[in-house]
Amino acid sequence: MAILAFLGPHGTHSEEAAAYINDFCKQDWSLQPYRGIHEAIYAVHNGDADYCFVPIENSIEGSVRITLDTLMDDIDLKINMELIWQVHNQLLLKKGTTAIKKIISHPQALAQCRKYIQKNYSQAEIIEVVSTAHAAKMVADGLPDAAAIASKRSGQIYNLQTADAEIQDISDNVTRFILLGKKQEILHKEKPVKTLLICQIDGSKAGSLCGVLNDFANSDINMTRIESRPARTGLGNYVFFIEIETANVSEEQLRKTLQIVQEKCLWLKNMGYFPIIK
After folding, report:
1. Backbone phi, then psi, for 128, in 5-degree steps?
2. Cα 40 from chain centroid?
3. Separation of alpha carbons 268 and 171, rounded Å
4. Alpha helical stretches, state H, the chain
5. What's the N-to-C CA distance of the chain in angstroms?
6. Which one-letter DSSP state was computed for residue 192?
7. Strand-pair partners of 3
8. Residue closest to 83 by CA, chosen among 175, 183, 181
9. Residue 6: other Cβ atoms inside 10 A
10. pLDDT mean values, one per 10 residues, the chain (278 residues)
11. Are 184 and 91 in contact (CB under 8 A)?
C-alpha cells in the first residue's frame, strides 16, 4: 500500500485535506503523519513515503515558508495536484478550564486569527508549535489555562470543548495544498493547468529578472504568482518561485520559452504540470 505523508499528528488541517484528496483520487493510500513539513517532504525524497501532501500558501497569511524553502533543496520531486482547501479554525479548551491565559497553535493558524486574539485575548501568552493538532494535544494533556486554535476534528480526537467556532479573521480562509511525488503522474481526469518553476537568477546583472518576465510575456504565457526566498548562499542572493498557467499554451511554445528562460538562470527546477482541484 502506498504511503501519503502529511503534517501530523492526527487532527491537523493537513490530515483533513489529505483524507479528502485520497478519496478524490479514488486511492487507498495509507496516511502517515510526520512531525514537520520538511520531514514529510523528505520522507518522499528518501523513499520512506510515496507521496506527501503539504500546504504551500494561505489566503490570509501568505506563503508557507518552510514548504518553499524545502522545495529549494536538492530534491527531485514533482507536483501532481493542487487542492484549494477551506480552513476552519476553532478555539478549543479542556473541560473545566475557567481562564485562558495562553493561546497555542501553529504560526499560520495564529496569524489567521490575529484580530480575533487581539480583540478577545489581548493579554494572553501566544505559544507557537509545529502543528494545530499538536497544540490541541498539549491542551488535552493538561497545559494549564490554555486554549488551542485547531480544527474541529482535533477537538473530537482529543476530547476538547469548543469555546468559539470559526474564529479566523476572514471567512474565506483557504489554503493551497500540493501533492508531491517522485515522478509526474496522472492521478485524476482533471487536466494540468499550471506549473511551478524554481530558479536562481544572476542578481549582479541589471534587468535579469525583467528579462525572464518579458520572455513569458512575449510568449503570451500568463504568470499568476512570483515570490522570492533567500538563497542561503549569501546576503542579497535570492531564489524565485514562479507559477505560470499552461492550459492555453502549446507544448512546443512552452518548451521553447522554458529553454530561453533556463539559459538566463543560474539554475532552474520545473516542478511539473498539474491540475487545480477546488
Report:
1. -95, 135
2. 12
3. 37
4. 13-24, 37-45, 65-71, 107-112, 114-120, 132-140, 152-157, 208-218, 251-263
5. 27
6. P
7. 30
8. 175
9. 30
10. 94 94 95 95 98 95 94 94 95 94 95 96 95 94 96 94 95 94 90 95 83 93 94 87 93 93 94 95
11. no
Partners of 104 in the β-ladder:
127, 148
Residue type, 247: A
Q: Which three cell numbers stand for residue 200?
A: 536562481
Cβ contacts of 76 within 8 Å, gap of 6 or more: 45, 182
For residue 63, the one-letter residue type is S
Instruction: Quote the CA–CA distance of 145 and 220 in Å, as a whole number.
Output: 57
Q: Which amino acid is at 163?
A: A
Give the span between the Cα atoms of 121 and 103, in whole angstroms. 8
Element (H or E) spanning 163, and its range? strand 161-164
Looking at the chain, the number of H-run helices and the number of E-run strands are 9, 16
What are the structural domains, with CATH classification, of the chain? 3-87+173-181 (3.40.190.10), 90-164 (3.40.190.10), 194-277 (3.30.70.260)
Grid coordinates representing 110 are: 495564529
Residues 6+ apart with CB under 8 A from 18: 4, 6, 31, 53, 177
